[in-house]
What does this fold into?
Amino acid sequence: MISVNEQPLAWRENLSVSELLKICKYSFPLIIVKINGEIVAKSEYEKFMVPDGANVSVIHLMSGG
Amino acid sequence: MENKYSIEQIKSAHKILKEFTYVPKPVNKGYSGETLYVNLSTNEIKIKQVTERMKEIFIGGRGFGLWYLWNAVTEKTRWNDPENEIIISPGPIGGITQYPGAGKSLVVSLSPITGSAMDSNVGGYFGPYMKFSGFDAVEIQGKAPKDVVVFIDGDNGRITIEEAPLEDTNSHIVCEQLTELYAKDEADRLHVATVASGKAADHTLIGHLNFSFYDKRRKGTRLKQAGRGGIGTVFRDKKIKGLVVRTTNITGTSNNPADQALLNKTGIKLHKEIRRNDDKQCHMRTQGTAHLVEIMSDYDLLPVNNFKFGSHEKARQMASWVWGQKFTQGIPDGCWFGCTMACAKAVDGFELKTGPYKGDKVIVDGPEYETVAGVGSCCGIFEPDAVVELNFYCDTYGVDTISFGTLTAFAMECFENKVITEKETGGLKLNFGNHEAALELLHQMARGEGFGKIAGMGVRRMKEYFVKNYNADPKFLQDIGMECKGLEYSQYVSKESLAQQGGYALTNKGPQHDEAWLIFMDMVNNHIPTFENKAEALHYFPLFRTWFGLNGLCKLPWNDVEPEDNPKTDEPAKVPEHVQNYVDLFNGVTGKKIDKKELIRMSERVYNFQRVFNLKMGFGTREHDIPPYRSVGPVTCEEYESRKDRYDKQLKEKAGIDPAGLSTEEKVKKMREYREKQYQLLVDAVYKRRGWNEKGIPKLETLKDLSIDFEDVVKIVKSKM
Ligand code: SF4
It folds into this structure.
């Protein structure tokens, strides 16, 4: 299990940040991903694997309007 | 496009009713120091001085507009009384060309649909050209007996009020005609800017204004809209066909800033940032705000079928890439010089399929996200060409696409629920998704006919009309009619974000997203979980965004692009580097020394003043800050069932109610009790943070602290407490 923006989500092996964003339907481009408090660079989204038990924050900046 | 009359005929039919000469004052540190007053009842034209106190308290733009309007009207004035004014002002930063998004005009008037002060922010060249012709604002009062054009000749210091019988009324024609008429030659058209509305503004309360700019690459006038609140209706009620300004005084230093080097430096930084990041971030330069369509659908925020739902599988038919293909690419589409964000996209050579211009090939400005969602998904319409056609006709007829979308969606839901039938609509089958019926409704508005006239009154009046004449259930209509304070909602589903419910309904002018857009912060990031957190956001962001309107700025370059290191800052949602840019721009133009705290204080003065303005006009108290339930939660069992898992979970975890064994109807009821209570608690927290009492009235100490405790302001506040 992991937590994404305080909501529980089932973990699975080889779960990359890109994959996680797809599962959550987080398609907004202005986001910041933090895993256990550390920012993951955009260029790392494909390679970076989310560990089990991770606390993930996907911070959406405002845009809109 | 076929012109009924030649430019020569139009010109020779003009009769000068009044001529006024003046010496244009050069702009100094963002202000010319003078404003123009025109009265169309008496043909009086005069110049007023801008005092230091006015600059200190009201800054410019929306602030100047509200101040002039406050002095022009009494609590008894209605939108169509001659005393009502239309004020246009660009603000001190407005007109610089070094920083993207710095050419906006703010328009203020008493609104026909809310009855109180309305402000609307618009691009195009009119505001900056007016300032470079010597005026920080133009104030138009009175009503002409016949159609007129007001012309400001900034080069020669001459203003005329001219009878204008032969011009068209619809904007895509009249703006071309006036541009040609007042330009010396083709190259000179760049120096002419116009304001116009359209035929539907004559017959509805949702008329908007088009502000033109001449696009020399397309060799045609482009239109940007001051959309909200029916100011186009006021414009046509005053019998104005067009406002025109011409000046050749347009250089990168016409705003005569205190520190040009600081503006250059700040601007270059953002230009580079846009070039580096826009293609990776919001694609504003290729898709404009339409980049949001599929994203909003993904997040359940795209209004579908009158805000019942937040997403639809067909939304992808109107996704960003579709617009990217329809928009002409490779043209720097800025609505003011120097805007490298260049999001004012257009569909060129669009062949119209309906209406009086059927078969014409036209330039269509947009559609922007709000239009795609408003006239599209909110009405269950997912055909891009129908959206473009609706967009075009709304623009040229002078109709706000947001209000049109929301009120048509409301009428559609009433039709589907048999509140109205073909008998009442005159044969229009107003089912969700029927774009032909939506277009015909729009054409009826322009002709002042049939159900179009009834719908054109807006959602609030339609509700009253249906109850009175068709025996409709007032409670159901109140729940589904997406208006607050009389203004139709703009196009985001706010059901799952309590903060955004407040972001809409706790606004001064009515539910428009330009005060606060907090949905991601609240609903997705869970960053503002407590009432106090939400109240803080509903204090800061509306004030921050108010500041753009005081200064003639566009909001988009603030947070639709961001520096690479923004994620590492302490408050990334505020985009701290850009906030500092705005501080630098203000100081660079005016020579003052504000900081980011003072920036918020500047807005706080005007914001609270506007709240008191609402009180003056008989609104501005708690009961006017309550949203329709459709904006808060599921009104119908159908809506509840569509998100059953989410709502059941919320009932259990948040409201402490076990949904097992409850019917959907019971669950809808319980959910409503819970959510309405939450909303009231939010209102309490926001009022407290804003320094207002429990009725929503600014406390006397708040007014004093902000130095807006003028005698008449205090008198009004005391009388309402
Ligand atoms: S960002 Fe877009 S709307 Fe704003 S000023 Fe630039 S072109 Fe106009």
The longest strand of chain B covers residues 15-21. Chain B has 29 helices and 17 strands. Chain B touches chain A at residues 280-283, 292, 294-295, 298-299, 490, 492, 513-514, 517-521, 524-527, 541, 555, 559-560, 562, 566-568, 572-573, 575 (CB under 8 Å). Residues 7-246 of chain B form a domain with the Aldehyde Ferredoxin Oxidoreductase;  A, domain 1 fold (CATH 3.60.9.10).
